[in-house]
Amino acid sequence: MLNRILLIEKEIIYVFTVFLILFNLVSLYFIVDLLSYDEIVGYLTNGEIKSGNPRNLAFLFFGTTLSNLLFISVTLMARFFSKNAIKTFELK
């Protein structure tokens, strides 16, 4: 019974890890698109114009997303290539 629960938990971890990788890749697409903007202009309710440069924030998001992808990928590979996983595949 406990072995079955652990197998289900491993499958859930793999599925959510792949989902998180896909989510980060989509996020990376939008961040790269944001890097191409020179200025974002907003119109306030009193008629004033507010503008801002999104490059600094986009670079912060870019670095965070890349480090997140690296961490997730290394964790997934470590789980996949662990000694127990290799023994399981050799038995099949």
UniProtKB/TrEMBL annotation:
Residue spans crossing the bilayer: 12-37, 57-82
UniProt entry keywords in alphabetical sequence: Membrane, Transmembrane, Transmembrane helix
Name listed for the protein in its UniProt record: Uncharacterized protein
